[in-house]
Design brief:
- This is NitT/TauT family transport system substrate-binding protein.
- Pfam families: Phosphonate-bd.
- It is found in: Periplasm.
- It is built from twelve helices and ten strands.
């Protein structure tokens, strides 16, 4: 009996919805059995590398999935949505970014609070992609100073990409609440929204920057222009209740996470094809960024608590949280083996 035979996968058109560069809808992978169940939420397919857990062919490469734990994978519109699911007790682990993690800890948004258990990727690394604000090729918004009076697209306010706008405007002496208009739109709509004139520019994560470059869009600025060095941006967190109740299963998942990332680096072309097919994305889109210099720095899955502390302290200066906190109380490398 193969691993696939031992598992029951839910992968239908109805489950996937309309997943593509223009629509990236929800998806799920469910494994049946009597092993401990875990639920993992992510936001952006492929870009959030933990999303690869949803792909059956990649699941088959993992040592513990299906025996030490079951897994359900879901996609949410934004990290605050995932946080809300975790607070409701529907999600054990979720991809969060800088602001949503800090806000969740400070506000105790999840009963029992949360702990960071892995780093998904870093932003502003000098040799890798940094989150970038793009405008149309003929736009009047050509450089950061032009943000004054502009309409700027973000996927949601109170997120890490929103923080990038606030940080740049503060450096320019502008008021991010009154000197620009922030518009919430799904990431996949940014290109059309700019072309249609609904927004002047948008904040593009790595996967969507492929389309922006393909349209000849103008790079207004990137995170490297606002942060003096790389910082951890996206993380996998778990509710403390899940860690108490399912700690062994989450530890087994952490071993598989390391195994999966190593497999992706060793078999990049195969993984690009599998991810494009599963998430119904154009393969050139995935190939144009995944594990290239147009992707984020993501090789180190463990948590750099010193740099994480710096990032959380910065969010106080940016006005996203009122007070910082000791990250070592809400982050642990216990569940992810070192490379």
């Amino acid at each position: 009996m193969t691993l696939r035979d031992r598992r029951s996968f839910l992968k239908t058109g109805a489950a996937l919805g309309t997943i593509g560069v223009s629509g990236l809808a929800g998806c799920s992978g469910v494994i049946g059995g009597e092993t401990p169940p875990l639920t993992l939420a992510f936001t952006v397919p492929v870009e959030n590398i933990a999303s690869l857990f949803a792909i059956p062919e990649i699941q088959e490469q993992l040592s513990n999935l299906g025996s030490a734990y079951e897994l359900e994978v879901q996609r949410d519109q934004s990290t605050p949505d995932s946080l809300n699911s975790m607070a409701a007790g529907n999600v054990d682990m979720a991809l969060l970014s800088t602001v949503s993690y800090a806000s969740a800890v400070r506000q105790e948004a999840v009963p029992g609070n949360i702990s960071m258990i892995a780093t998904d990727f870093w932003d502003a690394h000098p040799e890798w992609y940094g989150i970038t604000v793009f405008s149309g090729p003929d736009s009047d918004v050509q450089e950061p100073e032009d943000l004054e009076g502009a309409t700027i697209g973000v996927n949601a306010t109170g997120t890490g990409v929103h923080a990038l706008i606030v940080k740049q405007m503060q450096q320019l002496g502008l008021d991010p609440e009154s000197d620009a208009e922030i518009v919430e739109l799904p990431f996949p709509t940014f290109v059309s929204a700019i072309n249609d004139g609904r927004i002047d520019c948008g904040t593009f994560p790595a996967i969507f920057a492929v389309s922006a470059r393909g349209e000849g869009f103008t790079e207004v600025y990137s995170s490297q222009d606002t942060w003096e060095q790389a910082y951890p941006f996206a993380y996998t967190v778990a509710s403390n209740n899940a860690l108490d109740e399912k700690g062994d299963a989450i530890g087994a998942w952490g071993e598989d996470f390391r195994e999966m990332v190593n497999y992706a680096y060793d078999n990049r072309d195969e993984v690009v094809s599998l991810a494009a097919e599963y998430f119904e994305l154009p393969e050139p889109l995935v190939d144009g960024f995944f594990l290239t210099n147009n992707d984020y720095y993501r090789q180190d899955l463990t948590i750099d608590t010193d740099r994480l502390q710096f990032t959380m302290d910065q969010l106080v200066d940016l006005g996203f949280v009122e007070e910082s906190f000791d990250v070592t109380q809400y982050a642990t490398n216990e569940y992810i083996p070192e490379s």
